[in-house]
Amino acid sequence: MMAMGPVLTVHRAAAEIGGNCIELSHDGHRLILDVGSPLVGDGADDLGMSIPRTLDTSKDIAGLIISHPHQDHWGLLHALPTSWPVWSGAACEVLIRMTASLSGSVIEQPFHTYHPHKAFAVGPFTITPYLTDHSAFDAHMLLVEVGGKRILYSGDFRRVGRKAILVDRLMANPPPDVDVLLLEGTTLGRTETFPTEATLEDDFVALFRRISGRVFVTWSAQNIDRTVTIYRACKKAGRTLVLDLYTIDVLERLSALHHTLPRLGWPLVRAVITSSMKRLYENPSRMNTPTFVERVATSGNAMGAARLDEVRNAVVMLRSSLLRDFTNKGVRLGAEDAWVFSMWSGYLRTPEYQHVRAAFDAAGATFAQIHTSGHAAREDLEAFARRIGPRHLVPIHSFTWDQHLDGFENVMRLRDGEKFSIP
Ligand SMILES: [Zn+2]
Ligand SMILES: [Zn+2]
Questions:
Q1: Can you tell me whether residue 209 is helix, strand or coil?
Q2: Which ligand is nearest to the CA of 139?
Q3: Ligand 1 centroid to 397 CA: how many Å?
Q4: Does residue 31 contact residue 59 with C-beta atoms inside 8 Å?
Q5: Which of 16, 184, 325, 329 is most buried as measured by Cβ atoms within 10 A of its Cβ?
Q6: Would the pTM count as exceeding 0.85?
Q7: pLDDT tens digit string along 389-405?
């Protein structure tokens, strides 16, 4: 019998944002791209652990390739066979393991490291990872070659972050002869804005200069682009950046791989040690690194929450749980302070952030939103698709692709679980 060509199955994410799970099978071998939990919010709670119905977990796979460390791309790992071998970027693995520890889960699959632009083989599949620009650190697009076909998976990407030039370069010199482009479409139909991180830096500097009190900022500790933006703005405005234990830990672990990241020990960076973060780090079934807490506490650059009232020029990392710790220690918010929400505005409507908003409003503090999307704008998605010029464009990672297909050519609309034999 003549060998069939490779078959593509989008197990999930054909019609939703996140929960990505894509399979390429060829000649009895299977390659999985991402195994995300469906996106239901920012927190680690209620992640909807469902494995896609059409994903066969009873058989071995050649490999599972993770594009980046957002949970909607790897969050099902702990529910999958522990024998399945995983490949990811080095920093991606660090961040995945940290997130898992936060909630007390353990990743048991063996991990292998891939490197940007270095092709590697898994069974009959050759994979080339392209480091890209996204709100997650160490995010990659993945080119897979198998059975004479070439499949480019966009992962999640944007063109306004600190690595935008990587997307520009890929577009200037695109991989030739792409049979299938799996393209994310997160922002289609959403009201988002797309300023660059450099513009955000200017906005932060202006606000830091205008506000006479402290500026509390809410952002994701793993959004390293944003941490760098805020650190640089602190430097320009002469403010001290006060980070919680978790953010300090993220920067320290990533600094082992990327030496240019701000971290504790750099001028202007201070740590605040709160009781709940300390418990999290000392808990054997959570972060389990009491020595880290000890080291930060004795670094000469750490303070307790009670001292936050003394550092009037501080820019303070804030999450809703941290606000509780701060106020328990007597930190009083005032009209001279400000709160900046630096995440997707949808999260601001959740009860946990409505509660934070109410606390700052009650104090008469200034409120601002300084943020840019982690995903490409529609024009950038169109331009990207035109440059790649795939024989088949398979839309993924959006709830509203069907209303936004014009402007895109050669669209092959798949349903979750539908098999597509690449012609
Ligand atoms: Zn995603
Ligand atoms: Zn993402």
A1: helix
A2: 2
A3: 7
A4: no
A5: 184
A6: yes
A7: 999 999 999 999 999 99
